[in-house]
Amino acid sequence: MNKITYPFSVHHIVIHNGIDIAFCDEGKGENTLLFIHGLANYAPVWNHQMEGLKNEARCIAIDLPGNGLSSRGDYPYTMFFYAECIVKFIEQMELKNVILCGHSMGGQISIIIALRYPHLLKKLILIAPAGLEYFYPHEVMMMQHTMSMGGMFYSDEINLESAIKQSFFSTKNESHKIISDLKHIMQNYSSKQFREMSTLSIKGMLNEQVNQFLQNIECPTLIIFGEQDQLIPNKLIHFGDTPESIAKYATSIIPNATIKLIIQAGHFVNIEKFKEVNDEIKRFVS
Asked: What is the pTM of this model?
């Protein structure tokens, strides 16, 4: 793993069942910003937030199990599995005033935690989150069939590279670094493990939907989308929806939610427009 560099010191903690979580921990303050990455990714996608917000709050970015520098194993890689791991992490680290910030799949995981463990969270930030869309049973079957054909998302290095590039609006971006790191991770831990983790995670998003429970989120919630997001909403099935339409729908359902749409930004809005995103987070946290 020596080819992958994390700009911040990496710490480790074993939470339960021998699961080792790698994480970066910077800054200090009354609040704790806990950053959760998306599908088959890693903590460094939050580098701009860690650097830009560490003077505002304690900032922690984790590698989910099966990702980054965290442990691999015969894990279910469902949304509930990831959520329980994060809850164990919060409890063992004795984190207080937690503001959970999830990107993409990390957003859906964060919603589950907000629903099941509201006492652990102070606020919730969802950046280009999965979970706001609803997939009908026949749509779920269609997506799973596509996955079984091997032509979707992170099934191999070619699809991984394509998916990461699609996550940016501008061609001048940091995708090359992310792609290089994830390919290296895939090669070091075997592409088979990476593919199984990715497939199970996608199935988890489809089979553990949270759309119908959004009205039960109790904590203040900030939703941020890049207006040119090409991954959410799903363009294969929900081609008539836009990031703005699903964000507005979510804010009409979640009792105390606000939205921020950022122009000329894609799925990785937290990287492409990190200054705007960090400013929104600062306002929301204060």
From this structure: 0.95
